[in-house]
Specification:
Length: about 290
């Protein structure tokens, strides 16, 4: 069995219109390809919730703030399609850049608040690119559900805000981060790590988890975060872009653990930028 591939908005709309006539519920799983178990977990969750699942594969040039990073992003469409077929995904939507952004394309969707700080501070234009392409994917697919990984937590909150603000009738479903056995979050970028870097990489989730536990037990926020930064660098990471405690819903900075929070990090290991995050809720004293 193979998964049908469509490349134009017109073809996609035809298929979706036929599904709508059947009255089925449709889910979309946006991806940039190079599918791994993290992506596949979203597809499996979507198949449980919806009758038809569209996986989108589009390496969105607008969300890359570095041309080198865009050029280095691998393309593995045949392998991706082969991974989706046995799961039972119903459609792979893989438009090219001209289909998504025809000549004279001039619109940008920009979400303030949640897109500020964290990755937004270090990747100028990135979240405008994400918001623009994801709003287009929602409108093109007219899906009832959109599945997103908590791995990209700021992106998840940005997509939720954008869909609400633009009255796009879609429910966003968050899915937990899938990790390797040693704790490293699966990412298409992990293949860029040398064997030595790969050995060091799990120190990031390990420091993150340990710090989350310390904060949950009442350790003071700023000194604890400073120690965690030092531990990440001591483990062999080249740079910590950010390590911050943020409100879980609106991502406002927090200096004490008075409501549900996320601890979010971005750090460079050699030439590879890795991100991760974990939830923290305060352990109430006995
Ligand atoms: P990407 O192809 O990197 O743009 O990711 C597509 C979707 O897969 C996004 O919603 C990501 O958050 C999600 N994703 C990527 N890695 C993981 C992971 N390790 N666990 C869960 N979801 C993930």
């Amino acid at each position: 069995m193979s998964v049908p591939i469509v490349r134009s908005v017109a073809q996609l709309r035809q298929i979706v219109a036929a599904w709508r006539r059947e009255g089925v519920r449709i889910a979309v799983v946006p991806t940039m390809g190079v599918l791994h178990e993290g992506h596949l977990s979203l597809v499996r969750a979507a198949l449980v919730k919806a009758d038809r699942v569209i996986v989108t594969l589009f390496v969105n040039p607008k969300q890359f703030n570095s041309q080198t990073d865009l050029a280095a992003y691998p393309s593995t469409e045949d392998e991706d399609a082969a991974k989706l077929a046995p799961l039972g995904a119903h459609l792979l939507y893989a438009p090219d850049a001209e289909e998504m952004y025809p000549a004279a394309f001039a619109t940008t969707v920009s979400v303030s608040g949640v897109s500020e700080g964290l990755c937004g501070a270090f990747r100028p234009g990135h979240f405008d690119g994400v918001a623009t392409v994801v709003s287009k994917l929602f409108l093109q697919t007219s899906a009832d559900f959109g599945f997103f990984g908590e791995k990209d937590f700021q992106q998840l909150q940005l997509v939720r805000r954008m869909a609400r603000d633009l009255d796009i009738p879609i429910t966003i479903i968050p899915c937990p981060t899938v990790r390797e056995a040693d704790g490293l979050a699966l990412s298409s970028r992990n293949v860029r790590l040398s064997p030595a870097e790969r050995a060091v990489a799990p120190e990031l989730p390990s420091v993150l988890l340990e710090t989350a536990e310390r904060l949950a037990r009442g350790s003071p926020v700023l000194p604890t975060l400073a120690e965690a930064r030092a531990a990440i660098l001591a483990a062999g990471y080249r740079e910590v872009e950010y390590l911050e405690l943020r409100d879980e819903t609106d991502l406002r900075p927090m200096t004490s653990l008075d409501r549900p929070a996320r601890l979010l990090v971005a750090a460079w290991l050699g030439g590879t930028r890795l991100i991760d995050n974990v939830r923290i809720s305060r352990v109430s004293p006995d």
